[in-house]
Amino acid sequence: MVAQATPFSARSALALRAVSFWGSAPNGLCECSGTMDFMNAPALLKPTWTPITTEPDGLGESPFWHPQEQRLYWVDIPGQRLGRLAVDGMQARGPLEYWPLTQEPGCIAPVQGGGLIVALRDGIYRARTWGGDLQQLAAAPYDTSKLRFNDGKCDAQGRFWAGSLYEPKGQAQGVLYMLDDQGLHAMVGGVKDGVEHGVVTANGLAWSPDSRTAYWADTAAHQVRSFDFDAVSGQLTNSRVFYQATPKPAGWAWGSDAPYGGRPDGAAVDAEGCYWSAQYEGGRLLRMSPKGEVLAEVSTPAFCPTMPCFGGADLKTLFITTARQGRSAAELALYPPSGCIFGIRVDVPGLPVNHHRS
Q1: Higher-confidence position of 37 and 327
Q2: What percent of the chain has pLDDT over 70?
């Protein structure tokens, strides 16, 4: 079953969001309580978002919760840096730390035994310590002047997956790669016999709790696909459309009256097997059943949420990264903390992060 997005007018939502999201909280932070009655959501949620960071990133992405460290990790792609912060409940406990890099990081994952695996523009690297030396595990198998790594994470078997993004946006050259102990493999996409089989912008990678289904999105196509996943071999088969969002109207811009609900960006799966998808330029998260039915729409405190993840000791804190780069002054005036990370409490826990096993 393919779920269809519920488009809405961005302009009709502005007044509601301006009132509900930027109220003053007793602790001096901006706690964000929103409603979604303008969306006709199948399940109405009224979240109270708490800012986790106050220093905005240009484009936050790839968040994960490190259970041993009780830290949240993420990347700032245009800022060319990694971030991390120890969090207790909804409060930081310790300083916000950034690790500057010389290239854009697309995604990161923890490594079993310590350290990180990082997908940079020109390859995939292992860092044994925070801020330490980077050891290249695999060179990028594409033209780095036009492509870079984007969204990715590890599967339950400890293999690292990362998709690529075609920056000129005009061709579906993005590929989903898997790194195992035998090297880097193209698993989905690419150009074969002159025909493009990839995506423009790889995003939304996730697996079901039983590892039998994999999800992968093409943000530019407004589409999430699902696959049968062989956990032993890593092979992806039986590709089908899991969710199709309504395409962006021609000439659409923020504040337009034209209905538009955003496009699928990063994602996470909860313990019930539901797929949470950030809708970039939609100001919302969607929670979808394993059949692709939209169960809930959750308004977000930034118009461009980029990726959710579950964390906290019970995995019932839902964090989201957001974007600031390239957004208009009018949009940022209404959503001033765009680029920051936010959190809410949810009833259903998420899945723990998978560690890379080299």
Answers
A1: 327
A2: 85
In a domain, 34, yes or no: yes
Domain that residue 53 falls in = 3-345
Candidate list 155, 265, 270, 347, residue with the active-site label:
265
Q: Is 230 annotated in the active site?
A: no
45 confidence band (pLDDT: 50, 70, 90): low
- The DSSP result for 207-273, as a single string, is E-TTSSEEEEEEGGGTEEEEEEE-TTT--EEEEEEEEEPPPPPTT--TT-SSB---EEEEEEEBTT-
Task: Decide: helix, strand or coil at residue 19.
Answer: helix
| Over residues 57-80, mean pLDDT | 98
Domain total for the chain?
1
Give the CA distances from residue 96 to residues 82, 88, 89, in Å, rounded to whole numbers and listed in that order. Answer: 11, 13, 16
Distance set, CA 112 to CA 33, 109, 198, 310, 354 (Å): 38, 10, 31, 19, 9
- Please report whether residue 350 resides in a domain: no
Give me the half-sphere count of Cα atoms (radius 13 Å) on the Cβ side of residue 191.
8
CB atoms within 10 A of CB 192: 9
Torsion of CA 42, 48, 52, 57, to 10 degrees: 50
> What is the CATH classification number for the domain harbouring 298?
2.120.10.30
First-last CA distance in the chain? 37
Residue that the structure tokens 């998978």 belong to: 354
